[in-house]
Design a protein that fits this description.
This protein has about 500 residues and is α/β, with parallel strands linked by helices. The protein contains 19 helices and 16 strands. The chain has 3 domains: about 150 residues, Alpha-helical ferredoxin (Fumarate Reductase Iron-sulfur Protein, Chain B, domain 2); about 160 residues, FAD/NAD(P)-binding domain (3-Layer(bba) Sandwich); about 160 residues, FAD/NAD(P)-binding domain (3-Layer(bba) Sandwich). The strands form 4 sheets. It has a 5-stranded parallel beta sheet. The protein is globular.
Length: about 500
Amino acid sequence: MSHILPNKLREQAAEQLAALKGKELKPKDRLMIPLQEMPSQAPEKRIENMKEVALGYFEEQVKVEAARCLQCKNAPCVKGCPVAIDIPGFIKAAGEGDYEKSLGIIKKTSLLPAICGRVCPQESQCQLYCTVGKSLKNVEQSVSIGRIERFVADYARQQGKLSVPPCKADTGKKVAVIGSGPASITVAADLRKEGHRVTIFEAFHKPGGVMIYGIPEFRLPKEIVQEEIDTLSQMGCEIRRNFLVGRTRKLEDLLQKDGYDAVFIGTGAGLPKFMNIEGENLIGVFSANEYLTRVNLMKAYDKERSDTPIYNARVVAVLGGGNVAMDAARSALRMGAEKVHLLYRRTEVEMPARVEEVAHAKEEGILFHFLRSPVRILGNEADHVRALEVLEYQLGEPDESGRRRPVAVKGSEYQMPVDTVIVAVGNNSNPLIEKTTPGLETTKWGNIIADENGKTSMDRVYAAGDIVLGAATVILAMGEGRKAAAAINELLSNQ
């Protein structure tokens, strides 16, 4: 991906839009319209700040990109969306310049368009099924659904046209929502619309879940998340911060002593995994969760106003190949690291991180080492990290995930000098609620077992999002939360 100045992209789009004006476009004409590149900060500038990298489409780009949509009658893109947004409908309205109508269509099924437009992996969801991408035999050439979604949401915010959803009359029913991430926000809003009283219990001092503590400011500005939280408050949801269910209060007490008619658990997957290799207890080894929480939630990057301690890293190794690994690597660079290595034991093709995030990381100078994984972490006499011992791999037969299994190359070990290691190889569910709630069934990995409607093994207790699915996407958590909210609404209406 080569960087083009934003103004140049706008000029190109204006010329393309003028050429399309008044034309009756056939499908083959639409396939010839070039994909609109997302304007972004220049790499050499953005690594010195925490401001958003992707700047968002210009209005001219939105209209040109919308013209690429074939408006397929069978709308294959919709089946790739976990909340089944009317994608052709909102794109058509955006292309006509009716952004208020476009946003209204999205908000019928999705509460967080400004967030999902930024962080959802559209290339593996809605855009994977796009007819344009399939016709051009390249999913990266699909209509940029997420970028258009982001534009219409941002436009409404900038114009001061964000509205608070209406709520029905008070039913007298109370629901406790544990956690305040995407699934919980969705559940809280859907329940409050039906007139139920909703209390959100958040363990941290700021609500928002992974969107606040995990995803960096340069990918998802926190003011956007805060606006969604403010909307919940304006709807009448009560938010209780620094409230750790399982410690501050047990889940059963919420039902039996505090009078809640139902409980929803949306606590996410925030317990970091490690690799269980020698040296993980050395000074200078961090989970991506801890590192990103310090940088994002506690704003360690704001050194003039934040007292959050952060390790002074010069040469960093990030272990993993997902979006969290990209976030950690790019954050480390912005925190002052001179060099950041990223090690992944498969090839770039198998890497689960978003294509755009990988491209941005490369532009910023992150050094990728594919088919590599650490054997152990080496320390000096003061127990500080001094190097990684790395093993080379080659790909063998596919494993249960469908990806080719990495096979170690014997005798290929070598040392990579580093002073910091960030482990980003996945997360498990926090076991606190499981351990303090008898009768709540979980898998061997600690995920809560729930049916297709989010119902758990306990009466009047529901769960959705990462606590059930394992680490997933924002939009998938929202989709599952919506099902759970519908089931809770039905439960309460029948009582």
